[in-house]
Design goal:
3 helices; globular; mainly alpha; 77% helix
Length: 83
């Protein structure tokens, strides 16, 4: 489940086309955090249990929530008509 949430986050990151945040340095830090989370998910699934699955899903959701909110607000605003 955490892997699926992370892949949706990566596709949202690609869809939004950086800069996502006001400063580009925040984008690089955010991308680094997402890549670290991906490596933890891969190690947790393949080699050794570093974290419980429920905790991993919770951490993934918390980290990716700003990205989901930004992506869905942009998608929702494209459907609105300007009077």
């Amino acid at each position: 489940m955490a892997f699926i949430l992370l892949m949706i986050g990566v596709f949202c990151f690609i869809y939004l086309k950086p800069p996502i945040f006001k400063q580009m340095s925040f984008d690089y830090v955010y991308l680094l955090i997402v890549l670290i989370l991906l490596s933890i998910i891969v190690m947790n699934g393949a080699f050794i249990d570093l974290m419980a699955d429920g905790l991993l899903v919770t951490v993934t959701f918390i980290i990716l929530t700003p990205l989901y909110v930004k992506a869905f607000s942009i998608i929702g605003s494209k459907g609105k008509q300007n009077p």
